Amino acid sequence: MTTIADNLQQVRDRMAQACAAAGRDPASVSLLAVSKTFGPEAVLAAAQAGQRAFGENYIQEAVEKMAALRQMGAPVLQWHCIGPVQSNKTRLVAEHFDWMHTVDRAKIAERLSAQRPAHLPPLQVCIQINVDGGLAKSGVPPEEALALARAVAALPQLCLRGVMSIPEPAPDHATQLALHQRVRAVFEQIRASGGSGLDHFDTLSLGMTADLDAAIQAGSTMVRVGTGIFGGRARPAV
Ligand SMILES: *Cc1c(COP(=O)(O)O)cnc(C)c1O
Which residue's alpha carbon is at the smallest distance from atom 7 of ligand 1? Predict the structure, then answer.
């Protein structure tokens, strides 16, 4: 096995253990492999080990990687944008990605919907929630999440799938869990709101290498793991 295949197996094992501890079905949590700063060879190695969903933060880098992987004959992969996106980059996201996790204002959502090519399925969208007002300033405050969800759900080329959050790193499990549970509460509030456009609202994108166990305990359905699969990054995370 390559190191990446080995790491992937360890992450899957860790997810299964967290599910068992939380009394959850392991099939209810999916793994998004965060490949930012790593080249197409690393993505291909993960794909060869069965991984299909990949998360990227830097749009230009991601688009180049996608093209390189097609050239290399990689299997069809699913691409998730998980980085902050300025208005002038929404077109690239709409044209190249399957999922977008970081929608935090209506203007970005409107642009993504208008720019989504007609021949593609709707862009799968999560709303980013800022639960702690922390360093990662992007994300909508919890009290504004429902209104934004309604706005996204009404857009024709977007499919509202859930909420995403990047809570501030916390040293201990209990603190991580408390933050994650606040995101879960927002998720449940929107789900219970009963508006239209919520038919596919099933995704809680929560948890990274350091805190995926607490995230799964809090109900995450998609953990986003970079370091645990690909190793440490030379460039800092965004
Ligand atoms: C980089 C990043 C990850 C992965 O972080 P690791 O700690 O390397 O697992 C997950 N989510 C987002 C939004 C990221 O930017």
Answer: 209
